[in-house]
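Justification of computing resources. Each target in the renewal requires a structure prediction run like the one illustrated here; the chain below, 225 residues long, is used simply to show the kind of job we budget for.
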Amino acid sequence: MYILGDVILRCWHPAVQRVAYGGAAIPVGIPRRQKSIAITFIAGGLALAVPAALAYAQGYPSRYDLGTTATQQEIAEVAIAIPADGRGLPPGRGDYSAGKAVYETACAACHGPDLKGVAGLPDMPSGLALRLIGGRGTLASANPVLTVESYWPYATTLFDYIRRAMPFSTPGSLTNDEVYAATAYILAEGKIIDKTTVIDAETLPKVQMPNRDGFIPDPRPEMFK
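Resulting structure tokens:
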């Protein structure tokens, strides 16, 4: 009767056999039924081992400490969502001029130099879906153009989204000043604010978006307790 580990090693590549058995490949034959069982275990082991090896190579931790209580600092690092009223907006400021530089470096590759989206990017939405400005007055038409300018009801959402999810290739890499600046640039290009407006935690919640009244409150508060 074969021990499973021995059977698996006998089914393995000769190079592995030589390492496991001190330099000599194992010539002994193995019954077909036991070989099929061994191959199943080998395949399962590879399925687990290969992704793990790739994960370690990419810098992911080998241990996640599941069940460990998160510290307040760890929670604060990820709990950064900003509600519509702007509560929790961080210190910082930005204007059109600084925002233009940030946009050209971090945003234009996908959203286009004119903020109307770049078509044909691999593994990305269509150019129209990447558009940030324009589209006012089209929402009730047969071909609505949904952009920050035409659709989004709150300017604070723009800051929140940029800070958490942009740039696409390195989300979370922008400083607060850079996020405020990019927000100011997009809002100004959409003719929502003046190009001289400085955007910060105080001024951003006061921005009146064109579609602010295009949304209605949900009459079912019990659904969100």
